[in-house]
Specification:
Elements (H helix, E strand, L loop, with lengths): L11 H8 L22 E2 L9 E2 L7 H12 L9 E5 L3 H12 L2 E7 L7 E7 L5 E7 L8 E5 L2 E2 L3 H12 L3 E6 L2 E2 L3 H9 L2 E2 L7 H5 L7
Parallel strand pairs: 3-4, 3-7, 7-9, 8-10, 9-11
Antiparallel strand pairs: 1-2, 4-6, 5-6
């Protein structure tokens, strides 16, 4: 099944421009507003057993990925960051790209059972309500190390909160939290109130994403 070109409302002017564009994996709009690349995301076509949205299509677009990373890093310009950590699994993509842009190291925060070294573990409840455990190697974060945490999407906040707890348990400092979208959930608000955050969603679009609504034709 082929998904038709997406149309995303950023502003009134932005809507008109995007509606005239085929958001394929080669096209770059003349005016690149913050979040223009969100129109590259793909809706769920497989039913309730899958996430409502697949943001990963924008990673296939060279300029889209670059602009997404730049938007995530903009609030942290001038901030001391020693390492970037990405959350298993989709946070690995944005996290590694962010680390490369900053010329910093990248730490993978894994689902339990994948690391063959000494680890620290943290239980959590993911966005589906399932109980899980994540872990991180215990030798990567020294006391005082400033870590930027990156994930693809923050819905309920449970996964990111567990990652925060792991960093702080090892004595690290959470320099910030970055994701394509941080939903206005109880968990999302908890993170926003306590940590410096960055996301890619224009204010006009945030309420729709909070309701898991998106504008496709």
């Amino acid at each position: 099944m082929t998904v038709s070109p997406t149309r995303l409302s950023l502003t009134a002017a932005g809507t008109q421009r995007l509606q005239s564009l085929c958001m394929d994996l080669c096209h770059v709009p003349t005016v690149r507003e913050k979040g223009w690349y969100l129109a590259l995301m793909a809706p769920n076509i497989k039913g309730p057993n899958f996430a409502w949205l697949d943001p990963s299509r924008l990673y296939c677009h060279p300029q889209g990925l670059q602009d997404c990373v730049a938007d995530l890093l903009q609030p942290f310009q001038g901030d001391p960051i020693d390492m970037v950590a990405g959350i298993d699994a989709m946070g690995f993509i944005l996290g590694a790209a962010t680390a490369a842009a900053l010329q910093k190291g990248f730490l993978a925060i894994r689902k339990a059972g994948h690391l063959c070294v000494e680890t620290v573990a943290q239980p959590y409840t993911d966005y589906t309500g399932r109980e899980k455990v994540m872990e991180v190697r215990s030798d990567a974060i020294l006391p005082g190390l400033r870590v930027l945490l990156v994930d693809q999407w923050i819905e309920t906040g449970g996964t990111m909160r567990a990652a925060i707890q792991l960093v702080e348990q090892l004595g690290g400092v959470v320099a910030g939290v970055a994701a394509i979208c941080i939903e206005d959930s109880e968990g999302g608000r908890w993170i926003r109130e306590r940590y410096k955050c960055a996301h890619c969603v224009p204010p006009s679009l945030q309420p729709r994403l909070n309701r898991h609504q998106f504008g496709w034709d």
